[in-house]
Amino acid sequence: MSPLVDYHVHLDLYKDHERVAQRCAAQNIEVFAVTTTPVAWQRNCDVVKGCSGIRIGLGIHPQLAAEREADIELFEKLVDHTHFIGEVGLDAGPRHFRTLEAQKRVFQRVLKAAARSGPKVVSLHSVRTSRQILDTIEQYYSHADLRFVMHWFSGSKAEAERAVKAGCYFSVNSSMLDSPNGARLAAGLPTDRILTETDGPFTQGMDGKPTEPGDVQPALRSLARLRTVPENTLRIQIAENLFRLEDGLI
């Protein structure tokens, strides 16, 4: 059977992250575990050593970029050692728009370093900044071997169409599908650009507990229902999308 895919999760933020990582391997789940600071990258790599199917992203989360701006130098030193970048991007939400200029400085250096070092998969955070991020991709990185994944995309339909034209993929979780706008966007995405994610432990399952990668199945089920395709057909398609996205990297 094709694997499940959780293409955006914060493994190191679970109290029992080692056991969560082991369960991913046991349950045949392909995982992109993002980090929020470059300091966490090596520690995460050590935790998942011996667990198949888990990629560790080198990241600087935009919500931390202002206070951790100096960490970009460590990011630039480590970038040659991984094909996976995330979580990175911009956040102009109510709590973080005041730091947007610092976020932009960090994000520009992240993309420059990744483009020099490529090929890379890049998991993008784009809260209220989809247009700015797409402007940057289109203007400066259209010819770089950077393979962008829009995590929990919340932009407009027009911005989603721009992202598709720019070659982006989209990782979709249950919380995104619970919102009318998110469901409309997910229904209209090209089938060959869709991945699933949990964004655990920041999302909750039906039981009210933080989601783990094994909880990605409800997102798959909801997507299949939304797009009126059999669940297993979509599961196979998402696995194929993953392998195409990562072609030549693993």
Describe this protein with a few key phrases.
three-stranded parallel beta sheet; alpha/beta; Metal_Hydrolase; 250 residues; five-stranded parallel beta sheet; 41% helix; 10 helices; single chain; hydrolase activity, acting on ester bonds; TIM Barrel; globular; TatD family hydrolase
Structure notes:
GO terms for molecular function: hydrolase activity, acting on ester bonds; metal ion binding. This protein has 250 residues and is an alpha/beta fold. It has one domain: Metal-dependent hydrolases (TIM Barrel, Alpha-Beta Barrel). The chain has 10 helices and 8 strands. The strands form 2 sheets. A 5-stranded parallel beta sheet has the order 4-5-6-7-8. It has a 3-stranded parallel beta sheet with strand order 1-2-3. It is globular.
Radius of gyration: 17 Å
CATH class category: Alpha Beta
CATH topology: TIM Barrel
Helix count equals 10
Report helical residue fraction.
40-55%
Strand content: 15-25%
Give the class from helix and strand content and strand pairing. alpha/beta
